[in-house]
Design brief:
The complex is a heterodimer. Chain A is an alpha+beta fold. In chain B, α1 (8-15) crosses α3 (96-106), α3 crosses α8 (279-295) and α10 (340-349) crosses α11. The chains are: A alpha+beta, B alpha+beta.
Chain lengths: 504, 604
């Protein structure tokens, strides 16, 4: 016969009843369990046909308000007895009111005589030997016990006091307690139950809230029952440590370009005008170079220029096109302006440095970096922001491969569609603006791109066509994270950082 | 970038057909114009100076004359306009006539080089000796049989203004004057004048209460345009002046015209001059204006310029520039396969004349195009005419290997370690102020650092040297968010270093901070040690005395180099209450900052 596992309470009750029948209260006391748990276990065992639940009438008692009062204030005859004992065990009846501090002492006298604690000797009360020992107080004990149950209905079997004596003593005492009849449940094993127990075919089933190492090591988990949880309840909200949302997009951009075979480059944020503007064929009187558009530096004010030959080629290209076949900008190029240090206005300064350093094809280069424009801070403008720049030096570089590369990049970034529109930048020709369709946001302008002008590439010693782009990053982040204020990225609200989802 | 509103009625009249909105917007976009959309433009006439001020309907308008500031304005008309962001590189598209010319080509209504045959007016403009040093170049033209209305007058003014901006570089390279020819008597003279050598009423008049006839000096000091542009005449003893044969003043370039030569809708004949130090710019500007006037129905005539050395030239010169375009190069740049004939056809649609000769395309570029410097610019014209949307995107087939920057990879590694410890990354601006960056941290304001010459606000005047003020700033803005707060920032800091090409050294750092009632030295030290363990560094801790930490609760940390020497790597400690008070932070804060640049430099 296979072993039957019973939950702890049922198993223990089963064992107890095997020793003989019990009332529910008694069983609860012996098992040290709440009566309701005993009853639940009994009902469960009854269902299996192992336990019978019989009902008997029993008398139950509870304390009244008067009973509580007498327990709190003290029983009058007890108080009186103790005062008389202090007087040597004998007191004149007429002195009793003075002794007890009350006019009417009839009740005290009545109960002292009735309990046999005093006898009358003429006009005196004399304490008896029973009185000396305060014998016959089962009623006081009974009411005291009831008071301990604080208003519950209590059966006699739960009380220590001798009920017969107590009730006899309390006769004529007024309503210190109440009594009534109630059903009492007696639990006993059935014959089948007795047989099952004797066969040893049941064992205790461990009910488990938390699986513990002890359960695992002891092997008790085999007979354990796992308490079920309410799995619909909400758990505590927690937040992982997270990279900044903007940083997450930067990493996504880096991964996209690295996957596409691009080499990452960096260059200083503090840059000479030469690399930020002149090498990019941006004329020295271009509005972008004015003080209201670009941050110039007071300390340090000037930087060093690259080798003289390169500077000369750039100067000539500006002035008359040099050897590039261009007309140039037809003005006098000022080397002093080229030395002026600025906070770089675009990371094209970074890619053009990379181009100058090694113009040999094939190369694919990208960078993500901080750039600066002299803007006042508002909802959509910051004086500093990130840019994504890239170049491709390749014999196959063309507008078609430019479009293909950027479309591939933006598809990696989650755009459903990418398109291009003619535009104008001083250092690219042809030039194109990039637009993306992101989610349901419609077309969003992402940045500029084009083929570097020969006036840019040739003075740097590059004879190959070079594709170039400069794309925005904050815009993408704002769209991704549903921000309407760019400041939120840099004056971060920690709650927002905690909430900003990694999946965005 | 300035936006211009071009009247749609006029545009359709010039194009010669009705154009649907969508059709127009799509064509403009394919030409590279950034279109804002359609709008209604209202015109107000100033009762004081007669100037026309335009305002978009539904736009905030302060009801003041833009010329003289008077509030005595009366509504005088309105136009439906298409609003376009000006493309600085195509000033020939700044006016309705130029745009219509381009659109007609784009739609194939007309193609090839627009022909302009201008008769000679017989008028001369003499340039007097001394102008070489003041304002050496002038070009002029005459336009007759003009039917002007308010809208056109306003359009001409706008064109003038926008050409000043784009080609004139805000009048530095060139400035334009347009006059009612009927108010002057040819010929003309361009001559130097002493600051008090003449008196005339400037356009719009002098401020109320002043004498209206003013000397050049008075105009520079009293007239709004004088004040706005007098810097262009700084250092000159004499100023440029354009007068007619009777000595009547037309203008004092590049400042202001005279009031009596002003153009009104009653004007039927115009005299136009462009002057400046940049011969190329003034020539282009006059070509654009002459082409526009001609397309608007005027009969344009040339003027002869006579220089002191006896040289003469007739302006405007509308002869095209001839260039040669390599079809192979064109196909390579665009990634398409076009025949030379197809290329010539596309250029014709861009209003250039092109013919194929010996497998090259010979191109005549109209005089009003100011953006063609190189055959590369013609290739862009081909691309625009062909249509960017028709170019098939593809990848370069060349194989290259992706290669990350070590400093970025190291930063990412630290980011992973710290987010793994439950820290949130924050980012702060690299621009800051000495007050926020030094004073509040009990550091001297004079700490050497990169200083911006022209800051936009007092809060962003220097580049940061450390990341602590960024973290403390974040704690400051989050005093009400749940504690503890554990954050970090990875970013660049900047120190002066003459050995560098740009005089500045960039240092990548990671800063870590915890705020909360129980934030203490042991916590931050444990984080730093954890990071060091992940980076395989051996550390040595020593007491540190930096003023922004509580004395006795800060350490500087060195790491052991492979040769056994030690290099300072980190500082960490409990932030001094004085610093917390300066930042308005009411929780204990611990901070650490570690240098990442030295780790990369060392390993490479």
């Amino acid at each position: 016969m296979s072993q039957i596992g019973l939950p702890g309470h049922e198993f223990r009750l089963f064992g107890l009843l095997a020793e003989g029948k019990r009332g529910v209260f008694q069983a609860a006391g012996e098992l040290n369990l709440d009566q309701s748990l005993v009853m639940a276990a009994a009902l469960s065992l009854q269902k299996r046909g192992w336990v019978a639940i019989a009902e008997e009438q029993e008398e139950v008692f509870t304390i009244t308000e008067a009973g509580r009062k007498i327990m709190a204030e003290g029983w009058p005859e007890v108080l009186a007895l103790r005062r008389i004992k202090e007087q040597g065990g004998r007191v004149a009846l007429q002195k009793l009111p003075g002794l007890l501090g009350k006019d009417d002492v009839r009740a005290e006298v009545k109960w002292l005589l009735r309990r046999g604690w005093c006898r009358r000797e003429g006009e005196e009360l004399v304490v008896t030997p029973e009185g000396e020992e305060e014998k016959g107080t089962e009623d006081i004990r009974f009411i005291g016990e009831l008071a301990g149950f604080a208003g519950q209905w209590v059966s006699a079997e739960r009380l220590q006091a001798n009920l017969v004596q107590a009730l006899a003593l309390l006769k004529g005492r007024g309503e210190l307690f109440k009594r009534k009849q109630q059903v009492k449940r007696i639990l006993a094993l059935t014959d089948e139950g007795q047989r099952v127990w004797n066969s040893g075919g049941v064992s205790e089933l461990v009910e488990v809230t938390q699986l513990t190492p002890e359960l695992l090591v002891s092997g008790r988990w085999r007979t354990a029952r796992f308490k079920s949880y309410d799995v619909t309840l909400e758990a505590i909200r927690r937040y992982p440590g997270k990279a900044h949302p903007l940083q997450r997009i930067i990493q996504e951009v880096r991964r996209a370009f690295l996957e596409m075979g691009f080499e990452e480059v960096v260059s200083p944020v503090v840059e000479t005008s030469f690399w930020d503007f002149d090498a990019l064929f941006q004329p020295q009187d271009h509005p972008a170079r004015e003080m209201q558009a670009t941050f110039y530096l007071a300390i340090p004010a000037e930087g060093r220029l690259p080798d003289e030959e390169l500077v000369k080629r750039v100067a000539e290209t500006h002035e008359n096109g040099g050897r590039t076949g261009s007309t140039g900008w037809r003005y006098h190029w000022d080397i002093e302006k080229a030395r002026r240090l600025v906070l770089r206005t675009h990371t094209t300064a970074t890619t053009v440095r990379a181009l100058a350093q090694n113009p040999k094809p094939p190369r694919k280069v990208f960078c993500v970096g901080k750039t600066f424009r002299r803007e006042n801070i508002d909802q959509t403008h910051l004086p500093e922001f990130y840019q994504i720049d890239g170049i491709i030096i390749d014999e196959q570089a063309s507008l078609a491969t430019l479009f293909g590369t950027l479309a591939e990049f933006y598809r990696k970034m989650g755009a459903s569609d990418v398109r291009f529109r003619p535009s104008y930048f001083p250092y690219t020709e042809p030039s194109a603006e990039v637009f993306c369709r992101l989610g349901n946001l419609g077309w969003v302008e992402m940045g500029g791109s084009g083929v570097f002008r020969p006036e840019v590439t040739e003075p740097l010693g590059c004879r190959t066509r070079v594709l170039a782009w400069g794309l925005g990053l904050e815009r993408l982040a704002m769209l991704r994270f549903g921000l309407d204020d760019i400041r939120k990225l840099y004056w971060a609200d920690i709650n927002w950082l905690r909430e900003a989802q990694l999946c965005r | 970038m300035p936006v211009i509103g071009l009247p749609t009625d006029l545009l359709q009249r010039l194009i010669g057909k009705r154009v649907e909105r969508e059709e127009l917007l799509s064509a403009l976009e394919r030409l590279g114009s950034d279109v804002e959309g359609y709008a209604v433009l209202s015109r107000y006439r100033c009762e004081r100076c007669d100037h026309l001020t335009e305002a978009l309907e539904h736009e905030d308008f302060n009801n003041r004359c833009e010329e003289c500031g008077s509030e005595r304005l009366v509504v005088s008309g309105w136009s439906e306009v298409v609003r376009i962001n000006l493309l600085p590189v195509r000033p020939d598209l700044f006016d309705a006539a130029g745009l219509a010319r381009a659109l007609k080509g784009f739609w194939g209504i007309e193609s090839g080089l627009p022909e302009f045959h201008f008769r000679d007016s017989g008028y001369r403009c003499r340039v007097r000796a001394g102008m070489e040093a003041i304002r050496p170049h002038i070009v002029c033209c005459v336009a007759r049989e003009l039917r002007l209305d308010e809208e056109l007058v306003k359009l001409l003014m706008k064109l003038q203004e926008n050409l000043h901006w784009a080609l004139g570089r805000d009048r530095r390279r060139a400035s334009i004057g347009v006059y009612d020819l009927g108010t002057v008597r040819p010929d003309f003279e361009f001559r130097p004048v002493a600051p008090d050598g003449v008196r005339f009423v400037p356009l719009g008049g002098m401020p109320e209460g002043s004498r209206q006839e003013a000397t050049p000096q008075e105009i520079l000091e009293g007239h709004p345009k004088g004040l706005a542009y007098r810097h262009l005449l700084t250092g000159l003893d004499n100023y440029p002046l354009l007068v007619d044969s009777r000595g009547r003043v037309l203008s004092m370039p590049p400042i202001i015209n005279s009031n009596e030569t002003r153009v009104t809708e009653k004007t039927r004949e115009l005299f136009v001059d462009v002057t400046g130090p940049d011969k190329y710019a003034i020539t282009k500007i006059l070509s654009i204006i002459a082409a526009a006037l001609s397309d608007l129905g005027a009969r344009v005539e040339t003027v002869t310029i006579e220089f002191p050395d006896g040289r003469t030239e007739k302006t405007p010169d509308m002869s095209p520039t001839v260039m040669s375009l390599d079809p192979e190069r064109t196909n390579a740049v665009l990634g398409v396969k076009l025949t030379p004939e197809e290329i010539a056809g596309l250029l014709a649609r861009m209003r250039e004349s092109a013919r194929v000769e010996d497998s090259r395309v010979l191109v005549q570029v109209p005089a009003f195009r100011a953006d063609i410097m190189h055959q590369q610019d013609l290739i862009e014209d081909v691309a625009i005419a062909y249509g960017y949307h028709r170019i098939e995107p593809r990848l370069v087939p060349t194989m290259t290997i992706g290669r990350p920057q070590p400093i970025e990879e190291l930063s990412e590694l630290c980011r992973r370690a710290l987010t793994g410890l439950g820290f949130l990354e924050t980012m702060s601006l690299e621009l800051t102020s000495p007050q926020e960056h030094f004073s509040k941290l009990s550091l001297p304001d004079s700490t050497p650092c990169v200083v911006v010459e022209n800051p936009a606000t007092a809060e962003q005047t220097i580049l940061r040297r450390h990341l602590f003020s960024g973290l403390l700033g974040t704690f400051r803005t989050n005093t009400t968010a749940p504690m503890p707060q554990n954050i970090f920032e990875i970013g660049d800091c900047f120190e002066l270093d003459e050995s560098q090409e740009t005089g500045v050294r960039t240092l990548r750092r990671v800063a870590i901070g915890s705020a909360g009632p129980r934030a203490g030295f042991a916590d931050i030290r444990s984080v730093v040690e954890t990071l060091a363990r992940e980076l395989d560094l051996v550390l040595r801790f020593e007491p540190d005395e930096r003023p922004f930490f509580i004395p006795g609760r800060a350490a500087k940390v060195s790491r052991q180099l492979t040769d056994g020497r030690w290099q300072e790597w980190t500082v960490l400690g409990e932030v001094h209450p004085q610093v917390l008070e300066a930042f308005g932070i009411t929780q204990p804060v611990v901070l650490a900052e570690c240098d990442l640049t030295q780790l990369v430099a060392h390993s490479s």
